[in-house]
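Contributing: when you submit paired examples, paste them exactly as shown. First protein:
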Amino acid sequence: MIRFAKITLRVFLPAFLCAGPLLAQEDLFSRENSLAFARYLQRTQQFDFAAQEYERLHYLWPADTSFLLEMVANYRLSGECKHFSRAYELLSDGLGRGHSDYAREYLALCFKCAPAHERFDEVLAFFPEHERSYYRLGQFWLNKQYDNALALYAANSYEYEGNRALLFSLTGELSEQRFKSPALAMALSALVPGSGRAYSKRWADAAISFVLISTSAFASYRAFHKKGIKSVNGWLFGGISFSFYVSNIYGSYKAAKHYNSSIYKDYQQHAESILHRAY
């Protein structure tokens, strides 16, 4: 055993002594190696750590702006909106030189963190009209400005592909969607209790409203028919029936509003999925 250890030491010790200086000459924390490591972290979707590594690079080589676009991209991919206000400063050099890829990255970050930001319009001016229409439509969707989105869709004359086409197609579907009228729902329930809720496809609520109002109204009618206007039960059941009747009208208004908001919510989720999937 001792002899084997001596032989091993004689074989590997010279090799180690020769390789030592070569290893020492390689700086693992050089700009190139650090940048390669940051990109590896990004490729493996470790966006938080990648952003930190890019920050270290920026701290050590502040004059080097070649990787700032990647740095901001990792802020967006990691969902780090706390860096949003700093992103414009980091990208300002590329934006100042009119680089559209810098502008696209900033608008993508706006979509993620602040679609209503005041600089959105400023950066949007970098693009031709057909691209501006797409980004503007995305901004309208994320800000839930549906009327503006529909107006832009109606005025659009451009053709798009991929996710951009999907967003315009979704807006077109919304323009053809039939919504419920709260006023009509109230009018229907005023005429026939529960019909306003049925109009908004709240079938169970409609049935319950109709049964409660009709039974309490009938109980009031029977009590008044037997004892006249002095009937306590007649007034009691009449009051109950009237309260159900009024609440049924208001409930029909709320049901129509809820029906419409649920449609908007489904479309909103789909639009956000399209926009975030695009970046």
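Second protein:
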Amino acid sequence: YLVNDLTKREMASIYRCDLSLIISKYEFNLLMNTFKVDASILIYLPFLMEQLNAEIINSYSAFKERKHFMSIGNFLHEPNWNVVLYLKNTIWPLIKKELPEAELHIYGAYATEKVNQLHNNKEGFIIKGWAENTKEAYTNARVCLAPLQFGAGLKGKLIDAMLFGTPSITTNIGAEAMHDDLPWNGSITDNPLEFANKAIKLYQDKSLWIEAQQNGISIINQCYDKEKYENIFAKIIEQTSNQINQHRLKNFTGAMLQHHTLKSTKYLSKWIEEKNKKNNY
């Protein structure tokens, strides 16, 4: 990615800005350690979630009231489509063999014909398409499956799983930068056989399931505390605004990029003007 033109464009955009909001600690550290971006022009600002209080937690559907597995994601997004194929061809057959009565419900917008062709009632692989009620899609299911093979940032599907009290099985890519050092809301593994086995155990073991649900609550309340990060964000914005000239003096690379962006347009227009003059002679 270091030689990728898109990387260069994004890095230039960060340097041109006074501040950039970064939602992932992994990417925040990548910018500082690999690209040597100064922390003064970066703000770590994850998803801002209200605290999960007792009233919300007590409203969750109980273990016995839930059944089946679920997975969710916009089918046009390549990491999500890859997940569906990986579940269909690798993970789900292993789970279905041990849990013949279980189903896997696949939710997502933009279900094209190639997506719907994967629907198979006999296999229990059910393409549900767009979820009219996301909360119900999660709270009706006992376990969320998200075997992401690639992707970046914070995974909204896994945040939602925690918000709705649904334990999940995911990969290291899926859980990347999402839970600090707290125990996961289920299990994390990149091995397909282990992934299936952990999903089966979580589906069957009520005590393990409740523990995983509690882990998710702790992650939301400790890692995505809206009040905490709103206050930090507001403080940084105020400090930067009050010292904007000094702040910009520290970012010479950004000033240089801004200069060349504006000057290149200026001299391109002069070149066009001279060219047109010659064409008129």
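If you have annotations for the second protein, write them as plain sentences, like these:
The longest strand covers residues 125-129.
The chain has a mean pLDDT of 95.
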